[in-house]
Amino acid sequence: MSPYLNPPTPGASPPKRGRLTLTRALLAVTALVGTVLAVPQSAEAASQTYTVDLGTTTGKVLRGSNGALYGQSDDGVPGDNLLAPLKLTTGSQKPPNGAQHPNGDILDVAPSFFRNGGGTMYTNIQDMYSAWPYQNLGLSDYLTKVDTAVDTIEATSYADKVVFVPFNEPDGNWYTGLNSTNSTTYTTARDRFLADWKTVYQRIRSDFPGAKIGGPNTAVWNQRLFGDFLTFARDNDVLPDVFTWHELDPSSLANYRDHYTTYRSLESARGISPITINIDEYGNRRDMSVPGQLAQWAAMFEDTKVYAQQPYWDIAGNMDGNTVQANIPNGSWWFWRWYAGMTGQTVRTTPPQADVKDTLQGMASLDTGRRQAQVIVGGSASDTDVVIDNIPAATFGSKVEVTVQALDWSGYEGASTPPRTISRTAYTPSNGSITVPLTGLNAMSAYRITVTPNGGGTATAPSVPWSASYEAENAAITNGTVVTQATGDNYGTAQRYATSGTKDVGYLTASDSKVVFGVSVPSAGTYNLRVFYGNMNGSPSQQVLRVDGADPKFVTYPSTLNWQYRSTVTVPVTLGAGSHTVSLAVTDPTLGTSKGQVTLDKIDLTAAQSTPETVYEATFADISGNPAFSYDSIGETGTGRLIMTNGDKATFDVYAPADGYYTVKTDYTSAGHGTTLALNGNSVATYGSSGGKATTSSTRLYLAAGVNRITVGPDSGTMLSLRDLKVAGAGDTTGVTKYEAESATLAGQAKAQSDSWASGGKNVGYVGGGSANTLTFANVSASAAGRYTVVVHYAHNDRSGSGNYNTNVMSRTAQLSVNGGTATTMTFRNTYSWNDYWALPTTVSLGAGTNTLKFSNSSAWAPDIDYIEVAPVSG
């Protein structure tokens, strides 16, 4: 962690940070404009080559770099459906009742971390203090805080899975001379730090003999200190269980591997066996949320088999820029989902340029049991030949199927659909080698190549909708200012926020301010216009959209954390083939003046699909049990099928762009009894035996916007051959019932409030803060007894705390009781303003007829509630 000043004004460059001065040259991130990714079957030689050697393994896949500092703020933020698929290896949270931040307490979030498969949790004990840099009240004061933190965690069931970090960035806090070039200053600071390290280390072990301890946890790489530290720690029997430091400068993309090698040599020279490493903060703001940047960091850490955690630059609870609201993924979440899906052994890779900042980097794996190879690359816009050598014929046969997917940046708060499948191609390796050409790349995007056996037949070619991007800074601008945002030039500019093309257009505040994009589309039809924007206005903002100067309408932009914290809104537009203008303006002669203002980054145009359907391959689902992987018939998706028996399950992470009903299709063959489909852990459908014939069964299910976990498994005595799961639709709301909060029963201080942004112009506030202040929906109708989804539309903007550089947004909770039964707690993430309404789903059991849903909170305020929607899970 490091200090950061107040948020900048609209479109402005952020101020410089007040931490250690770290400046390095770095190449700027680039973005393609108006380009469609193509992966041809044959092409001229690409400008660079990335080589994968499946014949040289480099160790078991660690998946160590997916951790996050303050990635969770509360139990439920992020939700379980976003946590479980990532297979988190580490996370860092504050100690019990720590004062540094208002949320993120390890006691609050550890249950959700561990129940969703989390590995090890770290805690910075100095986060007991409220200020940054930490108040220095003397070692005696600190030792009492150490006792409290350690004793409290030792009493939990997960104490053996916690690493205590005694000092966080000591070189920037209590021991600032550790980085001094003056030998006397350094020696004085070093000796004081080492003495205190020993004292605190021994105190932790005295409190909790089995405690795991991490350190020294410096803000920067420091070879001189690390050598001295290891010697002292060895001689005084205070070596850490995990060696930690931070890599926060963009130059780390060039220098980290040298740091790692040097560190291991420091251990070896002192006769110290290799200690587990956790780079427990890495990267800059411009890296967070960007798949192409994260690919570079993850590749380094996976290559050296260390753990690593993304930094807490802004807010707790969104996995450091990877999640939207409580249940919705952005583009980088899907990158980490790719990473979580790597299995088997990593293999040797050779990038076009080793240890060069902002270039194409990646990682690759081989799983001979599953008969799969995966390659993930990103970070460059240059055409690239991916050469895959030494493909083992014993594993893959004489012919392989290669699938290429693309994953684009969607902003920090922009929802992202699953990665796009670009191509499925059969290759016959020559001397065990194939070349997969990638063209039209985007430096902010990441790409995955999967290799599986081709057992015969031809896979269905993927349908790739036409798409193009247009940068706001290249449009016709009236009364707006082009501002350069994040680049990799040095630490300061890398700490600005990620922006497509490194520029945006802000200060669109005059009555005639507008941005006019010239676009061109290949055919007439409906296109999804996606606007990348920032809005720190304090409420939703608007602009007037016109296409070819006609049909004005307002586009509404929900609030974002600040002017540069990118989100997206999507509006359908109808275009004829050829050239058009798309304008976004402040005022319009017909509609008048819009509300608020926004910063514009870029627009995307994508051809709308008339019948959207997403295919999820069974052989890349999460599995439990011991299913077999078969590729005897290529099938539609090209990646084979799972052969499952009793106890085997496949779990798919299914994305819904909006709340509503979707048709879930299961492609399978079964013999025996039946197959069970479960949604988020609850059985929703059972299919009978197909009699050994390939079949497709369909179920209409209500899916919440974001990620839904659908599990498929055979019943006892059934042999199931599962090829894929398909999800079709756009969120049909037929069968969904809406209940306005102001029409419900209000008790105590709860009252209806006017808000023009709320449904019906009103919401209900002052629920909670005492057991008498309740909101009751007493007429919720259910046609039959069963499981129902309840979606709560709410707003709140609680913030608390000072003395650090983070935006300390807070969550609110409410207890939901159904028909007077035991209440369950719902946790509502901050919506950035009191006028922005988000949705939080939960699942309840309702009886046939009329039901009562009561919201309350005896100890704190619940959020303002706009309305709820109720729908049967199975429609």
Radius of gyration: 27 Å
Read across the widest sheet, the strand sequence of neighbours is 17-16-19-14-13-12-1-15-18
- Helix tally? 10
Quick one: how many beta strands?
54
Overall geometry comes to: globular
Which percent range describes the beta-strand content?
A: 35-45%
**Which class best fits the helix and strand makeup?**
mainly beta
Query: What is the overall pLDDT average?
Result: 94
**Poorly predicted sequence stretches spanning 5 or more consecutive residues:** 1-43
C-alpha end-to-end distance: 48 Å
Helix fraction, binned, reads 10-25%
Quick one: biggest sheet? 9 strands, mixed
Overview of the structural elements:
This protein is 13% helix and 39% strand. It has 875 residues and is mainly beta. The strands form twelve sheets. Strands 17-16-19-14-13-12-1-15-18 form a nine-stranded mixed β-sheet. β26 (541-547) and β27 form a beta hairpin.
